[in-house]
Amino acid sequence: MSTISDAHRSGNSRRPHGQRLWCIRCRTDQHLIIDAIDPIEPPSPPEEGLVEVSYTCLGCDFLYAHAATVAQTAAVLNRPGPGTTSGILQFGGAYIHCGEPMHTVGSETRNIYAPMTTEQPGEPLLDVYLSTRVLKCSCGFQMEIPD
């Protein structure tokens, strides 16, 4: 058994390394809106303190997705200002609007077939249906997502 500690660890702890949330086009992080936060998915090994983050730059409308630390993600989420509350944040299985989780208020079954022509088709087409969940925020905002 070795008594030499890991050179990369201080006190047997390791700090996770994530890519900084940053817009390479605008060269700033001031216009970022986080769209989704998810756990790291295989084939990458899970690492404590790292999450997969998807975000958009409102300055240039460019999208990003990569691993970042929880602290890097929180720094963007905790910024004051109107830009941080617009849109919907997906956090794991929850959808957040207006700073609070949206609640399921029902479900629907939608036919996804839309005719491409006004002429009668020669053969009948098969109907395709999609089950959805209806989510609503206390502010009145509502959306449907696939179930």
List key phrases describing it.
three-stranded antiparallel sheet; 147 residues; 9 strands; six-stranded mixed sheet; mainly beta
Structure characterization notes:
With 147 residues, this protein is mainly beta. The chain has two domains: 15-92, no CATH class; 102-147, no CATH class. Helix content is 5%, strand content 37%. The chain contains one helix and nine strands. The chain has one helix at residues 70-77; strands at residues 32-38, 50-57, 62-69, 89-91, 94-97, 100-101, 103-111, 129-136, 142-146. The strands form two sheets. Strands 3-2-1-4-5-6 form a six-stranded mixed β-sheet. A three-stranded antiparallel β-sheet has the order 7-8-9, with no helix packed on it. A hairpin with a 5-residue loop joins β8 and β9 (142-146). The longest helix has 8 residues, at 70-77. The protein is elongated. Mean pLDDT is 78; it is low at 1-13.
Structure class: mainly beta
Strand content: 35-45%
Relative helix content: under 10%
Overall pLDDT level: 78
Task: Count the domains.
Answer: 2
Question: SSE order, as H and E?
Answer: EEEHEEEEEE
How large, in whole angstroms, is the Cα Rg?
Answer: 22 Å
In total, the number of strands is 9
Shape verdict: elongated
Total number of helices: 1
Biggest sheet details: 6 strands, mixed
Kindly report the spatial arrangement of strands forming the biggest sheet.
3-2-1-4-5-6
User: What is the straight-line distance between the termini?
Assistant: 52 Å
Low-confidence stretches: 1-13
